[in-house]
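Review form for a predicted model. The reviewer records the input and the model, then writes brief findings.
Reviewer: anonymous (R2)
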Amino acid sequence: MYSLSKDTLVLALGNPLRGDDGLGARACEMLAEFPLPGGVSLLDGGTPGLETVLLLQGYHRVVIIDAAEMGLKAGEWRRFMPDEATLGQADLSRRGTLHAAGLAEALTLAEALGVLPAEITIYGVQPAGIGWEPGLSAPVEAALPAVCAAIVRELGIDEPVNV
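Model under review:
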């Protein structure tokens, strides 16, 4: 058996047409300003649902940034590993469909399929609101430079210059 393992994926998730859910796309724009180390890929993953499994496949390490309901003040953020958090896995029997599956379900499926990356780090930012309007709230926009700086440091870039 051979491995086509790639090194690191920075995966930004969310929908820029849904208020603070668009923070992933904005973070992706900010992170693209930095020369990424070799072996690091940056991807605006949008809102893939279970297709997230396909995006994770083949990577050794994945850093995910997404809006996350954590009961914090808008714009507050946390860095955590999947086993350190309750990802809010919803009861699919109540929803009646897999089309609304999110990150928790995708990570569970990736693990079941044996394609879960060895290292996953999640950066969650508490949204102020996720409605049907584009643009980030002021607290989330203000938090993004610090979140991106933390991701840049995690990737091994010493001094963020323009985050």
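Findings: The chain has one domain: 6-154.
Further findings: Confidence is low (pLDDT under 50) at residues 89-99.
Recommendation: see findings above.
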